[in-house]
Design a protein that fits this description.
Shape: elongated
Number of helices: 3
Oligomer: single chain
Largest sheet: none
Strand content: under 5%
Length: about 90
């Protein structure tokens, strides 16, 4: 299955969390194995927030049109259905 963000590469955990250039335009948004396996609760909270943002962006936009970080609708990815066209 092609990546939902870039539509170019095969979608995998490593691609989504670290490699996708559409999702990660800078190093700060990338998630490392250490970020996930740490016992430091502050790091885990920050990592969970990053993962939520990545998931929002994947759900919100068709391939190749993912918006810049922080611009996806805040209510997506939390069990809410996306807004329906009227």
């Amino acid at each position: 299955m092609k990546c939902r963000a870039c539509g170019q590469q095969t979608e995998s955990q490593s691609h989504i969390l670290r490699e996708c250039k559409t999702l990660h335009q800078n190093e700060t948004s990338k998630i490392t194995e250490a970020d996930i396996t740490t016992e430091d609760t502050d790091t885990l909270k920050e990592t969970a927030t990053k993962i939520e943002e990545i998931m929002r962006r994947l759900i919100a936009e068709p391939p190749g049109t993912t918006p810049a970080a922080g611009t996806a609708p805040a209510d997506l990815g939390r069990g809410d259905a996306p807004p329906q066209p009227q």
